[in-house]
Design goal:
Length: 364
């Protein structure tokens, strides 16, 4: 199961009355930690653990803390500090070296299950929401908002003056977290080479829609059950569906159909999508010429060839390459190696510490 909050809530909802539940939230961090402020998970006195607030280091202790919350009927705040040898985090062997403060709130009928069913309802409708969780009381509020993916889960402690519209003065200290729906990948084309792409996207917890006017029942059987498969062309896709799309892969293996898909997408109202086109740069030029479009006329840029240079030529390798580039675009990452970025951060720190004569590397 994916650790996306949508999947956690979908697993939790049928179980919510079968155990006593606790919502865990990261409210403060310092230094290197696995999850940042705003990360959420669900635990129960029956032993359920839905999601992660670390790399798996503290979850066993969190379960013990959650059972105390249930037994006492009171919220708890727990600090895990790997730099403090007297802290539980030291004994648990946390490897990141940072510190995190976790808020544990009881989650039950009396507090409307902290509005988690309302969060799930938003996500099921492909709608993002701001989730405002009170720190001092086990209460929450949900407000729908535009989706906006970022590199890390983002939450912040906010006062009433800086918080969401409609939050009362009794919510002066709230953890406000943007919760996005599942990323939605649209694949145009139904060749066998996109089957691994469907599987990998589903493993990532994404929604996947496959559309091809040549799709028949025999072809459909080759694809995983978790996708939505449509026997339509790109031009026949409804606008409300297209407005939910975050990434598109055009892979008809047919010049005319690919060109028609490019034209259809360029005339739709999309929300900053990734669009990848099968084939080398020469084929992209041929597709655009067939579509009667130049690169400068494209309303939405097209990656062609699509994917990152990961190596390998099997469909599975290509799927990983394409989905990696799509993921980077959706989440606003530059897709650079983290080791290079860490080196750049260290050199930046040296510049700040030692003065302007220290070496520095700037990257776009």
């Amino acid at each position: 199961m994916s650790n996306h909050f949508y999947h956690l809530l979908a697993s939790w909802l049928p179980l919510k009355d079968e155990a006593n539940w606790v919502l865990g939230a990261v409210i403060h961090t310092r230094g290197s930690v696995y999850r940042k402020t705003g990360a959420l998970m669900l635990l129960s006195d029956a032993g359920h653990q839905l999601g992660l607030l670390s790399g798996g280091c503290i979850e066993s202790d969190l379960l013990l803390q959650a059972r105390k919350v249930v037994a006492l009927g009171k919220s708890r705040r727990v600090v895990y500090d790997a730099a403090d040898d007297s802290n539980i985090a030291w004994r648990l062997g946390i490897g990141c070296g940072g510190a995190a403060e976790i808020l544990l709130h009881p989650c039950h009928t009396q507090n409307d299950f902290l509005q988690l069913p309302a969060v799930l309802s938003c996500l099921q409708q492909q709608q993002a929401c701001n989730y405002a969780l009170q720190v001092d009381q086990a209460r929450a509020r949900v407000t729908s908002c535009p989706r906006k993916f970022s590199q890390r889960q983002h939450g912040s402690l906010q006062s009433h003056s800086a918080g969401l519209d409609g939050i009362g003065s009794d919510e002066e200290n709230s953890l406000v977290t943007l919760i996005n729906p599942l990323p939605h990948l649209l694949i145009l084309g139904s060749g066998v080479d996109v089957i691994p792409l469907c599987h990998l996207a589903l493993v990532m917890g994404w929604r996947v829609t496959l559309a091809d006017q040549r799709l028949n029942s025999a072809k459909r059987e080759n694809f995983p059950a978790g996708i939505t498969a449509l026997n339509v062309s790109a031009a026949e896709l409804p606008n409300d569906l297209l407005q939910q799309i975050d990434g598109v892969v055009i892979a008809h293996h047919n010049l005319r159909l690919d060109a028609a898909a490019v034209v259809a997408l360029q005339t739709c109202e999309l929300i900053n999508p990734y669009i990848g086109l099968l084939g080398p740069a020469k084929r992209k030029a041929e597709v655009l010429a067939t579509a009667g479009l130049s690169e400068a006329q494209l309303r939405y840029p097209i990656a062609g060839p699509m994917g990152l240079a990961l190596g390998g030529d099997l469909p599975e390798s290509i799927a990983l390459s394409v989905l990696a580039e799509c993921h980077a675009k959706i989440f606003g990452s530059n897709a650079l190696p983290l080791s290079e970025m860490a080196q750049g951060d260290m050199q930046m720190q040296a510049f700040v510490t030692n003065g302007a004569d220290a070496p520095i590397i700037l990257r776009a």
